[in-house]
Design a protein that fits this description.
The protein has 406 residues and is an alpha+beta fold. It has helices at 16-32, 45-54, 56-63, 127-137, 141-149, 153-173, 188-193, 201-221, 237-247, 253-273, 278-281, 287-301, 306-318, 336-357, 365-378, 390-402; strands at 10-12, 38-43, 68-71, 83-90, 93-104, 107-110, 225-227. Strand 4 (83-90) and strand 5 (93-104) form a beta hairpin.
Length: 406
């Protein structure tokens, strides 16, 4: 299994698969052909259908400002739902081409090649094997990660945490309307500052978690810098919970880094044995994975048992099964932003359940991950980040009838 570094990447929103991945692809491809004087890029599948709303062309042109970009929406039998064809030219002659896949979380893979993210670090194939390894050696999941990755992981996760904190701070201080034409207003600042009448501690906790998740997700929608956790579309869940624990509950920085380590491990298991890509498996692969990662992180930070950590992560994923990816007009705003806040609150609830019900569980984490993957493969492509079904279709039909499409 690969390093958890592949789970966390710092980049501009609004979509890790649709902006961070294509940006990295343009950078990698152009580096292979420095002599080229012209580039053309053809986007297929989900990238073609929602790339304009997600800012895919803009991300590519950040690297290749004069590139000609084509959106091919009728391609069949693609090797990956996020496929790009890059072509380099010199004096009118083609000098190189490559198909590149945006495989989720900002990672890319050249067709027929192994990506830089695919260096093997963990010999274990799934979560059950990791739990068994830890149990046999009497170590925690946190120790397991640090032992496998080495001390070089600590400054990397510190940089990741700093970026997460910065996104929360920026989102909490901003106001106005999000770009894209839907007229969605920023809500993080209001959630953070406004208390309800007779607000008790449980409502305060939910309000703050929601505020922090909205803050990061709104920064993502504005194409500002966020961290894939494991994707841009789900980038608000883990920062929300960890920011709350750090700034409202007083957890030390080392505990936050430990939480990130365990969350990354859980995300890595999901990515290895299923998918974290909305274009492959719907939003269950994004929000479901983030919720599971957050629950596992929180349980480990509370020093709960290995089986309790697994149960928290399993429940979090189980109750996101079947969640569709149907962003209105291809923008990562509705329903994406609210989903981040709901998932952050759900992660806490899953940990609370694991205190009492772990001994009664029947389903393993690996089984629910396999179920998520199969569910995603069975799901119509209308519900896998193409904006052809669900809320995207219903809202689109309504807007066309009223003449309010932007």
């Amino acid at each position: 299994m690969k390093s958890i570094r592949s789970i966390y990447k710092i980049g501009n929103g609004p979509s890790s698969s649709h902006t961070v991945g294509p940006y990295n692809a343009a950078k990698a491809f152009s580096a292979r052909y420095p002599e080229a004087d012209r580039f053309e890029v053809t986007l297929y599948g989900s990238l073609a259908f929602t790339g304009e709303g997600h800012g895919t062309g803009k991300a590519i042109m950040t690297v290749l400002p004069d590139a000609v970009i084509h959106f091919c929406k009728d391609a069949k039998d693609l090797p990956h739902p996020n496929t790009m064809l890059f072509e380099a030219f010199r004096d009118g002659e083609i000098i190189g081409r490559a198909r590149i896949f945006s495989i989720g979380g900002g990672s890319i893979r050249f067709e027929g090649e192994q990506s830089d993210d695919e260096r093997e670090v963990y010999p274990q194939k799934n979560f059950s094997e990791m739990i068994e390894y830890c149990r046999n050696r009497g170590i925690s999941l946190t120790e397991f990660v640090w032992n496998a990755e080495g001390e070089s992981l600590r400054p990397y996760l510190t940089e990741i945490w700093n970026a997460m904190e910065s996104a929360v701070h920026a989102g909490l201080s901003a106001s106005g309307i999000l770009p894209g034409g839907l007229g969605v207003s920023r809500k993080a600042k209001t959630l953070y500052e406004k208390r309800c009448y007779n607000e008790d501690s449980s409502i305060t906790q939910s309000r703050l978690l929601a505020a922090y998740a909205f803050a990061v997700s709104e920064e993502n929608a504005c194409e500002h810098v966020v961290v894939t956790a494991p994707t841009c579309g789900s980038c608000g869940v883990i920062p929300s919970l960890l920011y709350y624990l750090r700034h409202d509950r007083g957890f030390p920085l080392e505990s936050i880094l430990d939480g990130l380590a365990v969350a990354g491990l859980i995300g890595n298991v999901i990515r290895t044995n299923a998918s974290i890509s909305g274009a492959e498996c719907g939003c269950q692969a994004e929000i479901g994975s983030a919720c599971s990662m957050a629950a596992g992180a929180y349980a480990s930070m509370l020093r709960m048992r290995l089986d309790q950590i697994e149960y928290a992560a399993e429940v979090a994923m189980e109750h996101n099964l079947g969640l569709t990816c149907d962003p209105i007009q291809g923008l990562v705003q509705i329903p994406c932003i609210e989903r981040n806040s709901v998932a952050a609150m759900r992660a806490v609830s899953c940990v609370n359940l694991s205190h009492f019900l772990t001994e009664t569980r029947k389903v393993s984490f690996d089984e629910v991950v396999a179920t998520m993957y199969q569910t995603g493969k069975d799901m119509s492509d209308k519900y896998r980040e193409t904006s052809h079904g669900g809320l995207a279709e219903i809202y689109g039909n309504k807007s066309r009838q009223t003449g309010n499409m932007t």
